Amino acid sequence: HYLDLNISNRLSIGLFETVVFSRENQFELQYLNPLILYRTVEHGLDSPDNVLLGLNLAWRPVDGLSIYSQILLDELSVSELTSNAGWWGNKYGIQLGMKTFDLFGIDHLDLQAEFNQVRPYTYSHNIPIEGNEAFAITSYSHYNQPLAHPLGSNFNEFILRLRYRLTKKIRSELRYLYARTGRNSALNFGADILLNNTSRISDYGINHLQGNLSDISMLDFRINYELFYKLFLDVNVQYRQDRNDVTADLKNTYLGIGIRYNVSPTQIDY
Q1: CB-CB contact of 128 with 186 (8 Å)
Q2: This prediction's pTM
Q3: Which of 16-25, 109-118, 249-258 has the lowest mean pLDDT?
Q4: Residues whose CB falls within 8 Å of the CB of residue 110, separated by 6 or more in sequence, listed in order
Q5: pLDDT digits (tens, 9 = 90+) for 98-109
Q6: How many whole angstroms separate alpha carbon 124 and alpha carbon 191?
Q7: What is the average per-residue pLDDT within 230-255?
């Protein structure tokens, strides 16, 4: 469900929700109710399903500048949050970003900056897969891949993207990404959303970025040349470094050259 309202031609607010079934091979027909807020249906069913709620905002204070934000609530208790006891169930994610166009008055020079943060155990749940109880059937994932973010949860991320159209046929993009995450080990510190969150390390004292601390940085440059209408030649150079408190540091360099027709370019984020 998604509900969006344009307050003005410069401000819009949206509310969304999604549900992950806890029952294999079954579809809950009452979720086809087109009215937003599944909680009413959930209470009526005494449902064990996993519901996530979110709020997003987009604001254009002046021409050429756009600010956007998003808040995701997997579970939240205001009393637990204000007690500062580190309750594990306060699971949420936040996003804050901005885009500016024609930077410094240069045509087609665009800048985007974005910050993302997701608390431990967000997007995870506690209904086990039959025969493999260590994993939850109700995590916010698809084919064992996180739907929201490649890192799952328990991370901070900063992205800086600079785009410039040199000519009508040549476009370039420079992107820098830095992320810090607390990875799991033999213990479930809250990064892997596929795990059943009943295996969490504790109910209280849960700290953001707990676990095996890793710093991931990536620098990516790509340039596209339109050979003919909708036929592009792409060149991509990427450097990635992963520094971990426990395992050895990893460094990778990637070079890609390709041709595509009438499709968007594929980006490798992690």
Answers
A1: no
A2: 0.90
A3: 16-25
A4: 99, 100, 101, 102, 103, 162, 163, 164
A5: 999 999 989 999
A6: 9
A7: 91
